[in-house]
Amino acid sequence: MNTMKQSSQLEQEDRYVNQLQVTVMSHQIFSSLRRVRPVALFWAALLMGLSLVTPAFADAGLSAPGNGKAALLERQPDVSVGAQYDTTHVYVASTDLDAFVTSFLATFGGKASPRAVFTVTPTPSKTASQYVQTPVGMLSVFGFETPIPYPFGNERTGYLVTDIYQAVKAARAAGADILVEPFDDPIGKDAVIQWPGGVTMQLYWHTRAPDYAPLETVPDNRVYLSRYEADNFVRRWVRFSHGKVVSDDPLVDAGVIGRPGETVRVVRINSGFGRMVVFVTDGKLPFPFGRETTGYAVSDLARALESAQSADAKVLSQPYSTQSGKTAMVEFPGGYIAELHDRQ
């Protein structure tokens, strides 16, 4: 019993000594802080300021204003040339190339360059190719005669730029990945870039600057993204293109993507590269929605569909009425799928 009492007394004494040490240390720390209080307050304010600023830019992947990278971003020039120089890239079997071009021109009018065989990639390959000009948009059509080198075939569009190296620099500064560094082609230089959400496109520059008349209607570059990457992509694309978000509507009739009775968020962006429409979806899309890359505005949708069908194209989705007009989906010979809608 005496041993137990002595042990209890020792434990109480130890706790008292520990408390006394903590009190002394606290007093010493407090006294030290009083001496450096102005410096401590300065650093505390600075750290609080950084903690407030950094998260706002972390999601976008862009640095906060005031640092060197942000200043570099602000200095990047607009490298776009015009929507009439931007092309949808269409890949078909070489045996389907003539049928596709004939059907597309019969639907929209316009003309095509003579068919020729080129090497348009930085590694060995051969493709039959034609450039198609219509009043509603341009196409670069490829019918490869060899296997297609990676990542070609994944890019959705080709954008003419004022300077290929400046364009790549600006794209990189805005957050794009450079899948293929600038390389020579038969008439200039190209590069392939990719944005968040997997949006892949080609930038190109011509040794001899082309001169085309403006389009009658500018096509829509139709992009489908998840809610996780949509805002990130939009911010970066607007930064690079010097574009403007002209509308951001979360309650658009989802019948425009084959899901009537539901709503979908649609973001519209205009820039020197033309028009872009971003559909923010859960990825549960009925065929053929999401397979198209371009939407074409026509003055008479019914007549355009009739012309397309007469030229061996198939109407995959019958006209659907919206507040801005009707929209339909068409598949041309060779498998190219496009959206057609009433001109607004």
Assess the beta-strand content as a share of residues. Answer: 25-35%
| The CATH homologous superfamily of the largest domain | 2,3-Dihydroxybiphenyl 1,2-Dioxygenase, domain 1
Number of domains: 2
Helix content: 25-40%
Instruction: Tell me the structural class.
Output: alpha+beta
| CATH T-level fold name of the largest domain | 2,3-Dihydroxybiphenyl 1,2-Dioxygenase, domain 1
For the report, how would you describe the main beta sheet?
9 strands, mixed
Total of DSSP H or I helical runs spanning 4+ residues: 7
CATH class of the largest domain: Alpha Beta
Give me the count of strands. 17
Q: Cα-atom Rg, whole angstroms?
A: 30 Å
List low-pLDDT spans.
1-14, 16-69
Oligomer: single chain
Kindly report the average pLDDT value: 85
Order of helices and strands: HHHEHEEEEEHEEEEHEEEEHEEE
CATH architecture of the largest domain: Roll
| Shape annotation | globular
Q: Roughly how many Å apart are the termini? A: 98 Å
Notes on the protein architecture:
- With 344 residues, this protein is α+β, with helices and mostly antiparallel strands.
- The chain has 2 domains: 2-74, no CATH class; 76-342, 2,3-Dihydroxybiphenyl 1,2-Dioxygenase, domain 1 (Roll), CATH 3.10.180.
- The chain is built from 7 helices and 17 strands.
- The strands form 2 sheets. Strands 1, 2, 3, 4, 5, 6, 7, 8 and 9 form a 9-stranded mixed β-sheet that branches.
- The longest helix is centred in the first third of the chain and has 34 residues, at 2-35.
